[in-house]
Prior knowledge:
By secondary structure, the protein is mainly β. It is built from 4 helices and 12 strands. The protein is elongated and about 50 Å long.
Amino acid sequence: MRLQVARIGKPHGIRGEVTVQLMTDDPGARFEPGTVFDVEAGPLKALTVEGARWNKEILLVAFEEVADRNAAETVRGARLFIETEDLEEDDDDTWYEHELTGLAVRVGDTVVGKVTGLRTHAAQDLLIVEDTDGEEVLVPFVEAIVPEVDIAAGHILLTPPAGLFTLNRPDDPDAAEAAGDGGS
């Protein structure tokens, strides 16, 4: 199985280290020196971990192929993947961003958008959904709101709370009223 482990962030310092946005729950094992990642959306096809260290809450990684800050800037935004056979395939409650991206989002039988990404956070993850009007909606990825993910059928089912897809829109009368302009 191909697994996205991280997305490369901004350079750190002048020696080519970069910050990474983690998409793994085991960064210590994934960023061992010598680990080779497949790269998407970057100038190189593969990157080899030279070293990794924590700076407060941020993981800094040095790659053998990235010698300085200028080279680090060129790999910014690249996605890092590994091929792994050791993942448990039978975990029904675990999905990866690449599996979710592109799935239709339904409320009942009505398609209300599609998944365009996943933001991982300490407290909970958020699905990034592009609704049918082209607007971005952040949906808490919790069972109460997302009771069904069917990769094979190509959709997820939502039971969204009232206002999830309309709150904070310029044309939302409740948002206008809350802002103090009375919706007029």
